[in-house]
């Protein structure tokens, strides 16, 4: 059994590491680690990880509402890297209950949290109960409001099994969109064709739209909602150890 | 078992709405009896007891629960539904749990 990770110290070290070095560290630390793939530019993580561990575990969340191009891309990635991608589906009863009560576009009338909870978080939670660590493509520049403070490595208290720990890695956290796309071009990494149509952030079809040159990618998602306050965070510069 | 609830006061001195919601749920479900102490994390004062606990346990949000059992490491809960289910054995609806996770973890938006 490995020693418990000191998240604060390791994060401080990994903050200056490359995404590849962070992935290598994560893969060496955990045999039971899984990569989260959204069907967008986080494909770079698959490209990097398969060079370290060719049979790395990958999953993606099929909400049932993705673009046809995203489904085609997931399949392209599966074949290109010769990997198995665990495609996770939402609980059918929960989706049926939601749509029976509120219709197919409830998120336009209240907000997206309930639908995302059922279609994404439910299957995500179920999957994460089976692993010791997971890797996401989150970056600080994706949303200055909600992602400005995310670390490279964190103790995931939300999805951990009871009385157990779950480690979450965000290797791209300090990369910009430009760096990600530079990597994609330099390494001939396949990408979702929706990006050629002006989509920057890609999610479910009804909740995603292309953005203009001067718009932030956040404006391409849930644009009908007011930007929410970061109500739950503890806003102090000194809360870190 | 000792349970501590840490709730927040915002930088402008107003109470945190989410903390109020959680306190209401605890009252409605007659669960305040299980909470041994309520500690304030005052964003205007980094030395306040709650801010110090947040620092000690590396927690970046509020409210949160600290569950301590003798001889074991403290367990932190940042999701009320998870705490209620795992610690207080309350029967919860999965849809409510998932919605709370989404509401409290906006960084999950882009998954």
Word description of this protein:
- The complex is a heterodimer of chains A (241) and B (111).
- Chain A has 241 residues and is an alpha/beta fold.
- Chain A has one domain: 3-Layer(aba) Sandwich (Rossmann fold).
- Chain A has helices at residues 7-14, 19-29, 43-52, 68-81, 92-102, 106-109, 113-128, 144-147, 177-186, and strands spanning 33-36, 57-61, 85-88, 133-135, 153-155, 167-169.
- In chain A, strands 3-2-1-4-6-5 form a six-stranded mixed β-sheet, with helices on both faces.
- In chain A, β1, α3 and β2 form a beta-alpha-beta unit.
- Chain A is globular.
- Chain B has a single domain, classed as Glutaredoxin (3-Layer(aba) Sandwich).
- Helices cover 34% and strands 20% of the residues of chain B.
- Chain B has helices spanning 17-28, 49-56, 80-86, 94-104, and strands spanning 2-9, 37-42, 64-68, 75-77.
- A four-stranded mixed β-sheet of chain B has the order 2-1-3-4.
- The radius of gyration of chain B is 14 Å and the shape is globular.
- The model of chain B has no long low-confidence stretch (mean pLDDT 90).
- At the A-B interface, α5, α7 and α8 of A face α2, β4 and α4 of B.
The profile of the biggest β sheet of chain B is:
4 strands, mixed
Strand fraction of chain A equals 5-15%
Identify the strand order in the major beta sheet of chain A.
3-2-1-4-6-5
Number of domains of chain A: 1
Kindly provide the name of the CATH class of chain A.
Alpha Beta
Kindly state the number of beta strands of chain A: 6
* Radius of gyration of chain A, CA atoms, in whole angstroms: 18 Å
Number of domains of chain B: 1
CATH topology of chain B: Glutaredoxin
Strand order of the largest sheet of chain B: 2-1-3-4
Structural class of chain A: alpha/beta
User: What kind of assembly state do the chains in view correspond to?
Assistant: heterodimer
| CATH class categorisation of chain B | Alpha Beta
User: Total number of helical segments of chain B?
Assistant: 4
């Amino acid at each position: 059994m490995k020693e418990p990770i000191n998240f604060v110290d390791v994060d401080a070290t990994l903050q200056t590491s490359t995404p590849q070095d962070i992935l290598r560290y994560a893969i060496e630390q955990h045999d039971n680690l899984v990569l989260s793939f959204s069907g967008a530019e986080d494909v770079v993580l698959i490209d990097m990880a398969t060079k370290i561990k060719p049979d790395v575990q990958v999953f993606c969340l099929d909400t049932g509402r993705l673009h046809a191009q995203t489904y085609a891309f997931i399949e392209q990635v599966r074949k290109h890297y010769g990997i198995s991608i665990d495609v996770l589906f939402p609980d059918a009863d929960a989706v049926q209950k939601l749509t029976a009560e509120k219709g197919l576009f409830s998120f336009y009338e209240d907000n997206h949290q309930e639908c995302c909870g059922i279609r994404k978080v439910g299957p995500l939670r179920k999957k994460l109960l089976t692993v010791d660590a997971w890797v996401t493509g989150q970056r600080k520049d994706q949303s200055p409001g909600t992602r400005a403070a995310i670390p490279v490595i964190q103790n995931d208290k939300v999805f951990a099994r009871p009385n157990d720990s779950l480690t979450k890695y965000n290797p791209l956290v300090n990369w910009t969109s430009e760096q990600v796309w530079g990597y994609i071009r330099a390494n001939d990494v396949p990408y979702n064709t929706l990006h050629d149509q002006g989509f920057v952030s890609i999610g479910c079809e009804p909740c995603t739209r292309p953005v203009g040159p001067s718009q932030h990618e956040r404006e391409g998602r849930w644009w009908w909602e007011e930007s929410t306050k970061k109500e739950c965070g503890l806003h102090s510069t000194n809360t870190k150890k | 078992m000792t349970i501590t609830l840490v709730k927040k006061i915002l930088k402008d001195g107003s109470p945190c709405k989410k903390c109020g919601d959680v306190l209401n749920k605890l009252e409605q479900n007659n669960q305040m009896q299980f909470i041994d102490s309520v500690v304030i994390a005052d964003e205007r004062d980094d030395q306040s007891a709650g801010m110090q606990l947040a620092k000690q346990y590396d927690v970046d949000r509020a409210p949160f629960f600290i569950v301590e059992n003798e001889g074991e490491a403290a367990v932190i809960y940042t999701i009320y539904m998870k705490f209620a289910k795992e610690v207080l054995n309350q029967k919860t609806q999965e849809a409510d749990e998932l919605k709370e996770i989404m509401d409290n973890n906006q960084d999950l938006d882009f998954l």
